[in-house]
Each structure stands twice: as structure tokens, then as C-alpha cells.
Design brief:
- By secondary structure, this protein is an alpha/beta fold.
- It is built from seven helices and twelve strands.
Length: 246
């Protein structure tokens, strides 16, 4: 076989592999395309939630679920604890286990998790980069959320939650309904109003981690959590503040 024949054979093999993987990823691509276009549709046809009979919470939930996230809307501390209990109990019956849980350094997060009536093997507060990889679940609060894209906004100057939100296979975030804004600009403006110092590290989380770089097949959880749960607390904050203020 000549070098030209070898090159042609290798090219045919590569192209055949690409075609087969493109075919196998079609169902995932259709879902991905729909999720990517959903925010644009919401943006171009957006009607103020109050006028549309809905709310920013409804829009956030719809947008988050469109990108394969899970959203639970509750009211008050008891509702948040119950939602945490339900999520962790379900995870403990899966391969994700949820036996070791990492928390951000927000004291309110720890206070809520301590009320969950389930047994776990380990509970770590803001673990270091060398420790965080052994945890099954990360639980944090969020400083803001964006309704039209279902995005969480995590400000590192207010809470140590970057590693906890990005490394464990499951991320559970708690956010107050009043912290949900219509657009990215409004969310960032509110963060700026609350603090004159703009954080050098703001993490945006939109659904579970996903990539299509591996042989052109959509993969979930390669560069971050495989599952994202967001608990939205609709109870108005007290004078002492709430969990999402950081």
C-alpha cells in the first residue's frame, strides 16, 4: 500500500468515525439546540412577568429546567430544609451517593444542612482544593440569579463557594426569590449597588456542566457537576438578612 493509499484510508476512517458520532449525538443535539434557543426566544419576546401573569421565579424555573437543571420553589426555612432532605435522600439511592457533603462558608448554609434528618459520612466546610474532590455533593447559596437564562451568580468576595460549586458531582444552590433578576445587567448592577467593590471572581452557573468536544458527542459533567439543583426561597427576608445575601 502506497503512502497515498494509507493517507486515504486513514482519512476515510476518521470521516466515518465523525459521521457515526454525529448520528449518535443527534437526540442530544436537538435538546441542546432547543435549550440554547430558549433564552433568545425569551429575550426577544419578553413581556414583564407581572403583565404576563407569571413571575421572575416562574421564568427562572422554566429557563433552568430547559438546560437540564432542577428547581424547587419553597417558602421559609422549613421548606428549604425539606427540599434539601428530599434531594439528598433521592441522591443517596443513586450512584451519586451523597454520603459526603461539602458546604460553602456561609453559616446559614451549615445551619440549614444540620437540620436535615439524614445520615452522612462527612460534612466539610469550604474544603481546600486538595480535599474537595472526595465530596459527592456541594451546597452553597447564590448572591443572585438571572431569570431569562436560568443562571446563578456566585460572588467570591461574599462567600467561599467556588470550589464547592464546581468540583463535586452534584451542586445544590439556595437563592432567595428577591435575588432573581430579569437580565444579567440587572443582576450585576444590583451586586454593584450592594457593594462598591466589584468582585474579581464572579462565577456564572447555567445548568449542569456539558461539553461536545469529546468525539462530537454531548457529555454531561466533564468540567463540573453532573447535576444542579436550585432551591428558591420565596419567603421575604428578615431584618437580619437572608441566606442569599452572602
Amino acid at each position: 500500500m502506497t503512502n497515498s493509499d494509507k493517507t486515504s484510508s486513514a482519512r476515510d476512517t476518521i470521516l466515518g468515525s465523525i459521521r457515526s458520532h454525529l448520528t449518535s449525538s443527534l437526540p442530544h443535539d436537538e435538546r441542546e439546540i432547543a435549550s440554547h434557543h430558549a433564552p433568545e426566544a425569551l429575550k426577544s419576546d419578553f413581556v414583564a412577568p407581572a403583565a404576563n401573569g407569571g413571575s421572575l421565579v416562574d421564568l427562572f424555573k422554566e429557563s433552568l429546567e430547559a438546560v437540564d437543571g432542577h428547581c424547587v420553589v419553597v417558602r421559609g426555612e422549613a421548606g428549604v430544609v425539606q427540599a434539601l432532605t428530599d434531594i439528598i435522600a433521592r441522591l443517596q439511592g443513586t450512584r451519586l451517593k451523597a454520603r459526603s457533603i461539602a458546604l460553602s462558608d456561609n453559616p446559614s448554609v451549615e445551619q440549614l444542612v444540620r437540620q436535615v434528618p439524614l445520615e452522612v459520612d462527612e460534612l466539610g466546610i469550604a474544603p481546600s482544593s486538595s480535599e474537595v474532590f472526595r465530596f459527592d455533593v456541594g451546597i452553597t447559596s447564590a448572591q443572585a440569579a438571572i431569570a431569562e437564562t436560568g443562571t446563578l451568580v456566585l460572588d467570591a468576595t461574599r462567600e467561599r463557594h467556588r470550589l464547592v460549586s464546581l468540583v463535586p458531582p452534584v451542586h445544590i444552590a439556595i437563592v432567595a426569590a428577591e435575588k432573581i433578576h430579569e437580565t444579567l445587567g440587572q443582576a450585576l448592577a444590583e451586586l454593584h449597588n450592594e457593594s462598591a467593590e466589584v468582585s474579581p471572581t464572579i462565577t456564572f452557573v447555567t445548568g449542569p456542566s456539558r461539553t461536545a468536544d469529546i468525539e462530537l458527542t454531548l457529555a454531561i459533567g466533564v468540567h463540573g457537576p453532573q447535576e444542579l439543583y436550585v432551591i428558591v426561597d420565596e419567603e421575604p427576608p428578615t431584618e437580619a438578612g437572608d441566606i442569599a445575601t452572602g
